[in-house]
Each structure stands twice: as C-alpha cells, then as structure tokens.
C-alpha cells in the first residue's frame, strides 16, 4: 500500500512536470558561480512575473492561448555563465531550449515546444556598442533593430546597418535567418553585413569567428535560428547612408489602372537603382467612387538620395506611375525607419520601446512567401485580386518586394541565404485577424493555403523557394523525436536550396546529438 502511494505520488508529480523542473533548478544554482545572480533571472510558473515575462515578446498572439504549451522555466541570462549553466542543466535533465531574442518567429518557435522546455530569453543581453571611426558595432543578440538604429544615429546620421523594416525585430533571429530590409538591394542581407560573432555551443564553449571556424560562422548568418547554438552577439559592418533620403508611397486602385502598373512594375522594379527598395502592397478596400470593394496597390520605396535625384529616374524608368514631387518626402535615414513603421512625427526614442504594434494590422497572423522569376500574367494577377476580395482576406495584404541590385551580384553560397540572382521579386502573403475572430483562425489559415496553392504555377519551382525568416510550418517539419535528413530536405531546400547540405554538415559537427532542435531546425546526419 505504502509502495503504491509512493509510486502514485511520483507519477503525479512527474505528470505535473515537477521532477525535471526541480532537478533542473537545483542544477542551475549548483552550476552557477554566483547562485544569487542566477536566481534573479529565473522565472518558474510560480513566479508572479512568469506570465508577464513570457508574454512580453509573444508577437503572434495565435500562440498565446491557454492551450499553447508553456515553458517550465524562463531564464533571462545577464552573464555568459548563466547561458552555460542553462545549457548544461537542460541537457542533463532532458529539457529542450528555445532561444528568444525579439520573439517575432512567425510560428512562435522561440517560445512554444511540444516537449518539456526552457525559454532562454535574451532581454538582458542587448547592449549596442557603436564604433563610428571603424564603422562597426558590437550588438548583443537580444537587442531589437530599433535599438541598433537609434544607437548608431546617436553617433552618426550617415551610417546605418542593413536591418529590417520593423524596428521591434530582434537581431538574434533576424540575422540568423538572413535578414532583409530597406538597404538590402544596396548592401545585401543582415547576414552579409556581419563580420564577427560571439556564440555559445552545446558544450558551453564561448566561440568567436576565429575559434568557431568559417563553416560555423557561415552557417549562423542565415541558416535559421535555433539550430546550432546560441548567438550572444554580432559584430556588424556599418554602411554609409546619405544625410537626406527620400520616401514615397503612391496608391492606385484597379479603377486607376493598378493592374497595368503592377504588370509594368514587374518588368522594371528589379532593374531600378540599388539605392531603391521598390515594393508594391496590395489589399482590398472599399472604392471611394461607389462603395464597392476594389484592390488598392500601394507603390512605395526608399531612395538613398534627394527628390531631385529620384524624380528623373522614375520619369525615365516608370513614367506610367506618374510619381510627382508631392508624393515624395525628404528626411534622414533614421526618420525613414519611423516612416515605414507608420510612426511619423514620433520622437526617435520610440525605437527603444519594445512594446509591439504591428503596422500591418491584427496581431494574430499566418505568413507565407514565394519567389518570382518570370513576370506573372494579367490573368494570374486578376486571380490573385479575386482571392484578395474574399471575405477572409479583409485584412490580408500581399506585398511584392523587388530583388535585383547587389542581390544579383552576391553568390548563392556566400551565406546560407540562397535567393540571389534570377529573382524578380519576393511575394509576402500576410493574413491577419483580430482577437474576437481568433475562434475562426482556421478559416484565415485555410485562405492563405488556398492562395498559396493558386500561385503554384506562377512562382519558383524545384524547389519552390521560401524565405527562412518567414517561417511557415506548412512547408514541413521535423518529428518531435528523431529528425530525418530526407524529411528536413523538403523544407530545407525551399529555404536554403543547395546550401542545405552544407548546413547539415556544420550541424553534424557542432551539435551531433541534436540538442538544439525545433520543428524546422537543421538535422545532423546520424
Ligand atoms: P525570435 O526571438 O522569435 O527568434 C526567431 C528564431 O531564431 C527562433 O527559432 C529562435 O529560437 C531563433 N533565435 C532567436 N535568437 C537567437 C539567438 N540569439 N541565437 C540563436 N537562435 C536564435 N524579416 C526580415 O528579414 N525583414 C523584415 O522586414 C521583417 N519584418 C517582420 C515584421 C514582423 C511584424 C514580424 C513578426 C516579422 C518580420 N520579419 C522580417 C521576420 C523576422 O526577421 C523573423 O521572424 C526573425 O527570425 C525574428 O527574429 P526575433 O529575434 O525577433 O525572433
């Protein structure tokens, strides 16, 4: 009888997750050089701040429901020894680690797992140290892009980093998955602009570029976050930007010839000067003329120069758009970040604010991506518009983002990010919805799958390429238990093309037992 009670008690406490979790905590305090500092960065479910810390950077609220699996413990390291202790103790007690920098993973993989897990949140690891003279900055991986832009601008208005448009993205995930933004046609991806890194591996070794070797340094600059270890900091190359840049955004409805303009845009956007990042966003609106639904296409770009320099270029290359001086605004580069985040006239300090607001709409969303290598036909475009007019698409937005520029000149194998020459543009599909509609989330997700299927004949093939940072678990995922090269190749080749094999080799060397893993991590060869 006594034995039975003991077994029952043990089973009960195990099913509640008490055993691994308590052993893990004990291990952390034993392993840490200074147990008082590590205790201040540990949040168990009993801690009153646990939910606030967890939810602080859940950027896709689809993954913040009561049914979403939650971490047993959150650790917010403030010293490298905290990372070392957490990795050691997680391995010892069979817990998975999910590393979180800015929390923008589209599928929530930095804070959700189907097995018992620990979130390592880099919120306390976010210093930004800018060296204007040498045009470099050491940036800890938990910093958001807004902090990087702000700290650079504090010292120079004519230097920047090839970061993303949305200022709240974490540099940890951004660079790990490639990273493209306003400057990518001029200077390449975020990963192309990293010259050193500080990294911690599965054995707790702190490595820099020299000690990790060129293969691993190559892999972490685009091979996807959460596969190889934890990036602690990046050394970024700072790039020149003019004191004055120009931005414009011009909207045209179907009635105002949007279809013909998009068809023309497809032909010329990738050939526009590297100093531009042309894109066209499409969404459904009520027509001002008769109140019926129509599609609005918004043509926009940054230009690294003045209005006087931009207008003749647009007049010569894309006169059909009719871009006028009134459509354009001049500002500093850092102000253009506010502009593209729809934060015009706000103080620059807002870039330091980690509170998230999604300029594209609801905070529940599903994202997909495609690459286009041949212009799509008018009929194909009309089919896309018809789907954008569906009821589920009332908040959907589809953006064509022009490639070309330096992307055509950087070899596919320079970093794991392979989408270089030969692409006219990338397609970004975003369907989003509001909290009150989350009970109907499946209908929105189904819509995005239908649109994606519809686009099959018009986009890249064999593989159908996708951008790793626009994580999409519809493309495939690893099993919870064993990972398989064949299974992972399905989504791996879409994200990385032939670079996938080199990533597998690096993974096999640095983490052969596959400790750092998630649904779309790179598998080792067994
Ligand atoms: P998060 O912390 O969720 O991490 C993402 C992945 O990287 C996870 O797998 C995580 O485990 C891993 N990871 C995080 N930190 C790590 C570290 N230090 N070491 C190792 N692995 C780490 N992209 C883009 O290129 N250009 C853009 O303009 C935009 N815009 C955009 C807007 C919005 C609203 C969202 C939600 C997303 C984007 N993205 C984007 C996509 C974004 O770049 C992508 O989701 C990044 O991975 C986000 O990085 P975070 O650190 O914020 O995410």
Automatic annotation (TrEMBL):
Q: Which InterPro entries match?
A: BBE, FAD-bd_PCMH, FAD-bd_PCMH-like_sf, FAD-bd_PCMH_sub1, FAD-bd_PCMH_sub2, Oxid_FAD_bind_N
Domain FAD-binding PCMH-type stretches: 67-241
Alphabetized GO MF terms: FAD binding; oxidoreductase activity
The answer, when asked if Signal is one of the entry's keywords, is yes
Supply the PROSITE patterns for this chain: FAD_PCMH
Record keywords: 4Fe-4S included?
Answer: no
Matches recorded under Gene3D superfamilies? 3.30.465.10, 3.40.462.20, Uridine Diphospho-n-acetylenolpyruvylglucosamine Reductase, domain 2
* Cofactor(s) the protein needs: FAD
Where does the record locate the signal sequence feature?
1-17
Keywords carried by this UniProt record: Cell wall, Disulfide bond, FAD, Flavoprotein, Glycoprotein, Nucleotide-binding, Oxidoreductase, Secreted, Signal
Its localization reads:
Secreted, Cell wall
Say which family it is in: Belongs to the oxygen-dependent FAD-linked oxidoreductase family.
List the protein's name: FAD-binding PCMH-type domain-containing protein
What is the originating organism of this protein?
A: Gossypium aridum
């Amino acid at each position: 009888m006594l034995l039975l009670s003991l077994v029952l008690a043990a089973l009960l406490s195990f099913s509640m997750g008490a055993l691994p979790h308590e052993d893990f905590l004990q291990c952390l305090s034993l392993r840490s050089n200074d147990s008082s500092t590590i205790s201040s960065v540990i949040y168990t479910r009993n801690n009153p701040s646990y939910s606030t810390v967890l939810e602080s950077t859940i950027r896709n609220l689809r993954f913040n429901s009561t049914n979403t699996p939650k971490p047993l413990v959150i650790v917010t390291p403030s010293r490298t020894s905290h990372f070392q202790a957490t990795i050691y103790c997680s391995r010892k007690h069979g817990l998975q680690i999910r590393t979180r920098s800015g929390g923008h993973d589209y599928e929530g993989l930095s804070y959700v797992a189907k097995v018992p897990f620990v979130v390592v949140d880099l919120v306390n690891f976010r210093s930004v140290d800018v060296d204007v003279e040498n045009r470099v900055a050491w940036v800890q991986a938990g910093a958001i892009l807004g902090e990087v832009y702000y700290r650079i601008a504090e010292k120079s208005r004519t230097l920047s980093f090839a970061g993303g448009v949305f200022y709240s993205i974490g540099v940890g995930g951004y660079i790990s998955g490639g990273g493209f933004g306003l400057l990518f046609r001029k200077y390449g991806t975020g990963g192309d602009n990293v010259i050193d890194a500080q990294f911690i591996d599965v054995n707790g070794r702190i490595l820099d570029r020299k000690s990790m070797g060129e293969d691993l340094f190559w892999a972490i600059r685009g091979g996807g976050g959460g596969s190889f270890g934890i990036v602690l900091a990046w050394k970024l190359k700072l790039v020149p930007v003019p004191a004055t840049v120009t931005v414009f955004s011009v909207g045209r409805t179907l009635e105002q010839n949007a279809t013909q303009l998009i068809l023309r845009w497809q032909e010329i956007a990738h050939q526009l000067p590297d100093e531009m990042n042309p894109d066209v966003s499409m969404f459904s609106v009520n027509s001002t003329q008769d109140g019926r639904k129509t599609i609005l296409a918004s043509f926009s770009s940054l230009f690294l120069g003045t209005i006087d320099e931009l207008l003749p270029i647009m007049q010569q290359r894309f006169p059909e758009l009719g871009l006028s001086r009134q459509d354009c605004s001049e500002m500093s580069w850092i102000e253009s970040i506010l502009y593209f985040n729809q934060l015009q006239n706000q103080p620059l300090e807002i870039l330091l604010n980690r509170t998230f607001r999604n300029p594209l709409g609801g905070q529940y969303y599903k994202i997909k991506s495609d690459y286009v290598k041949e212009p799509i036909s008018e009929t194909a475009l009309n089919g896309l518009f018809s789907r954008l007019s569906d009821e589920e698409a009332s908040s959907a937005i589809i953006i064509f983002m022009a490639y070309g520029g330096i992307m055509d000149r950087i070899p596919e194998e320079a970093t794991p990010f392979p989408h270089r020459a030969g692409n006219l543009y990338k397609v970004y599909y975003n369907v989003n919805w509001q909290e009150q509609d989350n009970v109907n989330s499946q209908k929105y997700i189904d819509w995005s799958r239908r649109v994606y299927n519809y686009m099959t004949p018009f986009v890249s093939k064999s593989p159908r390429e996708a951008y790793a940072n626009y994580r999409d678990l519809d493309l495939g995922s690893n099993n919870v238990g064993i990972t398989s090269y064949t299974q992972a190749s399905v989504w791996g080749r879409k994200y990385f093309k032939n670079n996938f094999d080199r990533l597998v080799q690096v993974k096999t060397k640095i983490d052969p037992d596959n400790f750092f893993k998630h649904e779309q991590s790179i598998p080792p060869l067994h």
